[in-house]
Write a structure and sequence with these properties.
With about 280 residues, this protein is of the alpha/beta class. It has helices at about 15-25, 45-55, 60-70, 80-90, 95-100, 130-140, 220-230, 235-240, and strands at about 1-5, 30-35, 55-60, 105-110, 110-115, 145-150, 155-160, 165, 170-175, 180-185, 200-205, 210-215. The protein has a six-stranded mixed β-sheet. It binds fe (ii) ion.
Length: about 280
């Protein structure tokens, strides 16, 4: 089975469509979203409508959780709350009903899919787990691979039964060792925080165990203008923008370095403290 795993689309229709345009010719058997389909971007309703129309399975992200349980919005910072409110106001009754159906996790074919950290956390970030907790989770896990999002940064963590490794998550193919357990961070389609501009996602072939990391260009300026026109805080447009890089957003001068180890615990992004609503 060939899977495409998308995370943190965040209402960015241009990025989402660019990813779908790449996926569609590839004979993918199943597309799974890791949640946070809404918020920050200008087109939350259009993104959810497209996900629904294509029967793309999704788990619950923290932005969807806030739709279901408004008290969880207290976890978001004021800027994220404002962006979330604009997204929420867009949502149709059908999209709200769809959000009500989202599970905290999906398990299929020995793989787990969850927004934050396994087994089922919507809010915890991978980088918040000390190594001993990470090992406990991997040791208890029945699945060999767990896909997560939430940090908006690509990453590959592996455990061979003895020690944890944070492997390079360069663009292109990585063959997963069947003797190890993995946590794969699929990055973000619509609000990348890894210092590069492209929409990130991963493909996984369950037979060959090849994980392919992708970064797709899309019309960033179009999305930026729509964010500003919608009254969404401009920082969420700035984070996508060429030439501007506030709060750890993408820096267009940086390319995804194939030799760089994408270690979620070493992001250095001060805006990612607990409570930013990411
Ligand atoms: Fe997110």
């Amino acid at each position: 089975m060939k899977l495409a795993v998308l995370s943190d689309i965040h209402g960015n229709l241009e990025a989402f469509q660019a990813v779908l345009d790449v996926i569609d010719p590839l004979s993918i058997d199943r597309v799974i979203s890791l949640g946070d389909n809404i918020g920050y971007g200008p087109d939350s309703e259009a993104v959810v409508a497209k996900i629904r129309n294509r029967n793309i399975a999704s788990v619950l992200g923290n932005h969807e959780m806030a739709v279901r349980k408004k008290e969880t919005l207290a976890w978001f910072n004021p800027m994220a709350q404002k962006a979330w409110s604009i997204a929420k106001a867009q949502l149709s009754d059908a999209s709200l009903a769809w959000i009500d159906t989202l599970p905290r996790y999906i398990v299929t074919r020995g793989l787990r899919f969850v927004h934050g950290v396994p087994p089922d956390s919507v809010f915890l970030y991978l980088f918040q787990l000390p190594e001993n907790k990470l090992i406990q989770k991997l040791a208890k896990s029945d699945e060999s691979v767990c896909f997560v999002g939430h940090t908006h940064e690509l990453g590959i963590i592996s455990w061979d039964g003895t020690r944890i490794e944070k492997e390079k998550a360069s663009l292109g193919g990585h063959t997963l060792d069947p003797g190890k357990k993995y946590i794969i961070n699929a990055g973000s389609v619509g609000q990348p925080r890894d210092g590069t501009l492209g929409a990130k996602f991963v493909l996984f072939d369950t037979q060959t165990r090849v994980l392919t990391v992708k970064s797709i260009e899309y019309p960033v300026e179009k999305t930026r203008k729509k964010i500003i026109a919608a009254g969404i805080p401009e920082m969420y447009a700035d984070r996508l923008a060429p030439g501007r890089n506030p709060s750890g957003g993408p820096d267009p001068s940086k390319k995804l370095d194939p030799s760089k180890t994408l270690d979620p615990s070493k992001s250095g992004d001060p805006s990612r403290d607990k409570g930013n609503g990411q």
